[in-house]
Amino acid sequence: MAELVKAPAMLGDLARFSAELGADRLLIQGAGGNTSVKDHHVMWIKASGTLLADALTRDIFVPCDLFAMRDALAAQDGRADQAGEFLMQEGGLRPSIEISLHAVFAQAVVVHVHCVNTIAVAIRADAQEILRDRLAGFNWAFVPYAKPGAQLARAVGAALGPATDVIVLGNHGLIVAAATVAGAKALLMRVVQAMSVVPRSATPDLAALGARRGDGFEPLPVDHPLHCVAMYRDLVRAAEGGSLYPDHVLFCGIGAVAMSAEETPGMAVARQIAAGKPKPPFLLVPNAGALIHDEASAGATALSCCQGDVLSRVPEAARLTYLTLAQNAELLDWDAEKYRLALDADR
User: Fold this and answer.
1) How many whole angstroms separate alpha carbon 282 and alpha carbon 208?
2) What count of other Cβ atoms lies within 10 Å of the Cβ of residue 138?
């Protein structure tokens, strides 16, 4: 392994743009999302578990062997799902688990975000119909949900045409690709504008919510978007229905838990655990608002906000597509994601 790999000139521009992205909760939540730049046979990509928001204050990008990754993908080699195998420089950080996803693009700059306006469409059964209208004029493709890593990378690679530079990932997020950082930024902003809708809003009943606190659970701030979910019956059902995107599974467990009128927070948690599901970091209190546990991790806190931001943009009549039990299980049992969770616990 080489001792030192020279960073390309564009990496500074990518770091500045990455920091901007990481500061926008409608595009990035916690350690989610990733950016990269290719320089001949080297691809510099965000390290797993790091924050895009920190791109200007710490070294979050690591160099990887682009050609070797592409060869592994083409050969159906299991190494394509071992991101660390392609690291070209020691430093203690692993490449993003989505290194293979970035490798399938010919463009030099790839930006993958968890845009809540896009996810609010990508979780719908009629996603492609909506996208045909919203993204008219873009060179885009839709890729149904696949496990992040080589499986998803191959699906995206198969969907790419000669001019494709926008990919919407079912139940996951958005990717844009361009020759330069400036080009990727301009394209992303155009797509975000095309996908943006006005979210629903609601005011929580803080008195009623305060009466349901306890067992380590406290009300979220009054302006938190998750309160909106608790105030609409259809959104409570949608949240309880299951998991809608991978990072929710990893940081918040499977679906969401709504308290019944007779339950304390401890009783609601015990009900979830008895069903064989992870302990929930937040609870919905229908017609009152939302509670979060005082020991919720940074990732869980960010994804609780994401749940509110996404579901508040879903219309009442929408039919949603959920991750299956098998898809939830493969995320929770994936070593690469256990590594990310360990980093989140230390944050």
Assistant:
1) 16
2) 17
Please, what is the end-to-end C-alpha distance for the chain in angstroms? Answer: 29
CA-based nearest residue to 330, from 265, 267, 246: 246
Q: pLDDT per residue over 57-85, tens digit each?
A: 999 999 999 999 999 999 999 999 999 99
Give the angle subtended at the CA of 312 by the CAs of 307 and 313, to the nearest 5°. Answer: 110
Q: The tokens 């409608």 sit on which residue?
A: 26
- Alpha-carbon gap, residue 300 to 294, rounded angstroms: 11
Question: Rounded to an integer, what distance in angstroms lies between the CA atom of residue 223 and that of residue 34?
Answer: 28
Beta bridge partners of 39: 42
In angstroms, what CA-CA distances link 156 with 141, 217, 329?
9, 41, 22
pLDDT digits (tens, 9 = 90+) for 94-113: 999 999 999 999 999 999 99
Q: How far is CA 194 from CA 227, 276, 283, 337, in A?
A: 26, 40, 32, 31
Which helix (H) or strand (E) segment is 290 a member of?
strand 289-293
Q: What pLDDT is attached to residue 133?
A: 98
pTM: 0.94
Q: Strand, coil or helix: what is 91?
A: coil
Q: Are 91 and 98 in contact (CB under 8 A)?
A: no
Please report how many Cα atoms fall inside a 13 Å half-sphere around the Cα of residue 207, on the Cβ side.
0
Helices assigned H by DSSP within the chain: 10-22, 66-74, 99-103, 116-122, 127-134, 150-159, 181-195, 206-210, 226-230, 233-240, 246-252, 265-274, 298-311, 325-332, 335-345
